[in-house]
Amino acid sequence: MMAEAGENGKKSRLFTGERVVNFRPVFLLALAAACAAFSARFSGWYSLLSALPVTAAAAAVALLKRKGALRRGRRFGMRGAAVFIALLAIVFCGTAAGFQLVREGYEGAPAFDGECYIAGTVHEANAYDYGYRLTLKDVQVMNGDGYFSAEYKMYAYVSGGEHVPAGTRVRFFAEIETMDFFAYGEVNSYPVLDGVKYRAFVGAENVEYAGKSFDLFGSVRDALRGALFSGMEEEQAGVAYAMLTGDSGLIDEGMLDSFRYGGTAHVFAVSGLHIGVVYGLLSALMKKLRAKPFVRLPVIAAVLVFYAGVCGFSPSSVRAMIMCLALSFAGAVGLKYDALNSVSLAALCVLLVNPVYFYQVGFRLSVAAAGGIIVLGGSLSRLLARVPHMPGKLASAVGVSVSAQAATFPILLDSFGYISALGMLLNLVFVPLASFVYSVLFVCAAASCIFPFAARALLWLPQVLLVLTELPVLAFDWKALLIGGFSFGGWALVWFGLCFLLSDKINLRPIPKGVAAALLCTALTAGMVFANAPLPGACVEIYARYGTNFVRIECGGENYLVLTGVPDPTEAERYFLREGIEGVDGVFLACDAQSADGALAALLQSAGVERAYIDAASGYEYGFSETDVFKEEGAFAAGGVFAEFVGGEAVLLRIGGARVLVAGVGTATDGFCKADILIAENYSPGLYAMCLPSLEIYFEKTPAKLDIYDTGGLQISVKDDIISCKGRNVDHEVRIV
């Protein structure tokens, strides 16, 4: 962890100063909490045993440090080291135990399914494509087994209708779905952190409203929403509401995509930019009023906590709030402020409150961006300042932008499948402009909530500024400049290690630092090439997310898809961006005619489709000018793939010597069709008996079977009569019988 300079004051040839890296206890505690959350996911309660090697390693380092200090005639505080080691063990065990308790509580909650009568109070209402998603608290459920009060909240997806104010009591009949702690190979972090266990879908006409109670934060959000939409045009009001609360559901999807593809959508996640502006405004006001520290600190803390509550206590807002409060506290008591310890403290506090935050993309991006700016920003800015004729402010802005992009690069790629190639350049213009616009917007929006009758006048200037802010984002098609088609996986740790090594936090001399960086770069490059290399032979990739099911075949340099239903256009676009696919050579439509038309229409929104194949017996009568549709009867060839539609809504493919049956939900099972691999929605005894496969794979949760709901995705290759199946926690081979 630390290495001292040579004995008798001799300078080390490896590093400058007294040690390679400064000892930062808060950073190490936060790192221990993150490791504990990661370990608990895979090991459960057994992860507590991992605290033993962690504390043993820390104790060994402390003993070595003590031995070195005694040899040089220096004192080493073993008591302080013992206290830190104890804290390290407590944090590790506390985080691991906390994760497991949250998991057991969530998984142990009663499950409801089927048609039920539901009553609940609206905690939050968020717009989505087809209406509103209501987060209901105080949920009560009545079914054939009785009347129950649910421990967890519910997502009610209401199609159509209007915005429902927080605190409104609603009642309706609907089918309930119970969500799981793990879904599609990942921790289901967003509903778990929202305290949501159930979801239901209902039309607005079937919802009954029965009174209204008071909800503080919800009422503030509703008042803010009302003021913005009464004082601004709808487009700018949606953007303003997203900037102030982090809820981007009211923004037009096309505009939101432009912000995402331009790498500027972070402005809609209330974080350091937003909380920092609010903190700066409050600090300036307190300074103007000459408030004493014992008054200034509580006032600033109260306002920031309240604002974070209005934003739903999102991880990014809480992280930024804690950092600002640490800065304010340090200034009030005369302590030296350390930015890295501050962001570490914020991350530690969030993980101790709920370790599941470790698996939320927003938390990772927030901490990574702040940490990247702190670790890399200073050294990059100083390096750029040496460039002739480079203004100091420009060097600082570029250094901050590059460091944030570098730190979030692997997280963005692995989570969303792409990153903006020119996001750094766009942010150089956008971030300073957005900071100024946000400061004006915050003050004017607060005033319009207090004086709603004057909202139109108060919000005129913010509206004009928002229009100007949108211009650089909407001026170009940023989607054409996206980087994607590969992922980091576990190699992201090597990337972060490389970034940390190249920062001024590591005091190595240029030559050893260069050698270490070269070794890490070599390892990272080799690992990335290996991790992203396609499997040998013909390859089948299976992907599913909440009803969007894809089977993709790579054969002979061509890409084919099999669809068994209508995919969600947004999810389809994410998949294609993640895989770096701009178009497919052919699509097999293993579904009825109406679903096939919807599936092809949804697909064409995201990718080009050269050819589409459907069973001639389906009665398909639709068509698209962009795609040639072939109605097939019997066996046929599609490029390097031989196929045949069977059972009404299934397609039998011959890939690399294996017979692969992809079956839709309406597949008839009254015949026999031998297949080596069966891919279907759910297990069906009739379907299994129909094909007697060597390998079964199902899209949805299927107990005791291999399913995408558990694995998140699978890759299958066939070579020399061997079926290789690889995925998260899955790696086995099956011989074709």
From TrEMBL:
<feature type="transmembrane region" description="Helical">
    <location>
        <begin position="294"/>
        <end position="310"/>
    </location>
</feature>
<dbReference type="GO" id="GO:0005886">
    <property type="term" value="C:plasma membrane"/>
</dbReference>
<feature type="transmembrane region" description="Helical">
    <location>
        <begin position="263"/>
        <end position="282"/>
    </location>
</feature>
<feature type="transmembrane region" description="Helical">
    <location>
        <begin position="425"/>
        <end position="451"/>
    </location>
</feature>
<keyword id="KW-0812">Transmembrane</keyword>
<feature type="domain" description="ComEC/Rec2-related protein">
    <location>
        <begin position="243"/>
        <end position="502"/>
    </location>
</feature>
<feature type="transmembrane region" description="Helical">
    <location>
        <begin position="76"/>
        <end position="99"/>
    </location>
</feature>
<feature type="transmembrane region" description="Helical">
    <location>
        <begin position="482"/>
        <end position="502"/>
    </location>
</feature>
<dbReference type="InterPro" id="IPR004477">
    <property type="entry name" value="ComEC_N"/>
</dbReference>
<keyword id="KW-0472">Membrane</keyword>
<feature type="transmembrane region" description="Helical">
    <location>
        <begin position="342"/>
        <end position="359"/>
    </location>
</feature>
<feature type="transmembrane region" description="Helical">
    <location>
        <begin position="514"/>
        <end position="535"/>
    </location>
</feature>
<keyword id="KW-1133">Transmembrane helix</keyword>
<dbReference type="InterPro" id="IPR052159">
    <property type="entry name" value="Competence_DNA_uptake"/>
</dbReference>
<feature type="transmembrane region" description="Helical">
    <location>
        <begin position="45"/>
        <end position="64"/>
    </location>
</feature>
<keyword id="KW-1003">Cell membrane</keyword>
<feature type="transmembrane region" description="Helical">
    <location>
        <begin position="365"/>
        <end position="385"/>
    </location>
</feature>
<dbReference type="Pfam" id="PF03772">
    <property type="entry name" value="Competence"/>
</dbReference>
<protein>
    <submittedName>
        <fullName>ComEC/Rec2 family competence protein</fullName>
    </submittedName>
</protein>
<feature type="transmembrane region" description="Helical">
    <location>
        <begin position="21"/>
        <end position="39"/>
    </location>
</feature>
